[in-house]
């Protein structure tokens, strides 16, 4: 009888094992990324990932649209396109991106932030409270902003110039009032793949304006963080990407692009 029951339980364990593994494998979030930041810096502004497909990978994140058409902000499962000038719209599901990062946002960490005056101050305040600098974090900050300075770049046409050159065309817009910062923190070891450190986009409270953040100021509030230990990267299926030489160091170009043509707080 003992042998019979042992065989039964062994069979039951083997039957349930794939299900148990699937639960463990799906537990926790992953940061999904399409393309690499160095490819974008080099001028690969057309991808083949649609908004509909992107949103199957996450409900929170950032990126841009094909042709480097402004900024992409994904918040609460909706993709918003912030055009040059700061106005937002919701792109068609068939619209495509050359670079984007999203996750299913499930915050588990709350950081109490002091009053913030400048993007460097924000980055320093969050960095000081991170459990580890070797993980990814999705960061949401809802606040009444004294000011948020954003930029967006007008849609480009081929042949494309490198991003550090195109950034000179950026249109800067200032916002104030209720809104949301959508941020990602990536560890230093993703250099060349993503933006090491912080990358912030912004949406107004009524979702009618936004862009890439160059500076911000707001009173004390909470930052909500989703700690992410898994990273998934899809590479574009394109000859433009395949022909690139991605062996160089584009850190200087990235600094210019992230801060704008000049540092602005």
Describe the structure.
The protein is α+β, with helices and mostly antiparallel strands and 265 residues long. The protein has one domain: Hypothetical protein, similar to alpha- acetolactate decarboxylase, domain 2 (60s Ribosomal Protein L30, Chain: A), CATH 3.30.1330.80. It has seven helices and 16 strands. The protein has helices at residues 2-26, 37-41, 51-54, 119-127, 163-166, 239-242, 251-259, and strands at 30-34, 49-50, 60-64, 71-75, 78-82, 88-89, 96-97, 99-103, 109-113, 116-117, 136-152, 171-186, 197-204, 210-218, 221-228, 230-234. Strands 6-5-4-3-8-1-16 form a seven-stranded mixed β-sheet, with no helix packed on it. A hairpin with a 6-residue loop joins strand 3 (60-64) and strand 4. It is globular. It starts with a helix and ends in a 6-residue tail after the last helix. The model is unreliable at 2-27 (pLDDT under 50).
Topology of helices and strands:
Layout: H1 2-26, E1 30-34, H2 37-41, E2 49-50, H3 51-54, E3 60-64, E4 71-75, E5 78-82, E6 88-89, E7 96-97, E8 99-103, E9 109-113, E10 116-117, H4 119-127, E11 136-152, H5 163-166, E12 171-186, E13 197-204, E14 210-218, E15 221-228, E16 230-234, H6 239-242, H7 251-259
Parallel strand pairs: 1-16
Antiparallel strand pairs: 1-8, 2-7, 3-4, 3-8, 4-5, 5-6, 9-15, 10-14, 11-12, 11-14, 11-15, 12-13, 13-14
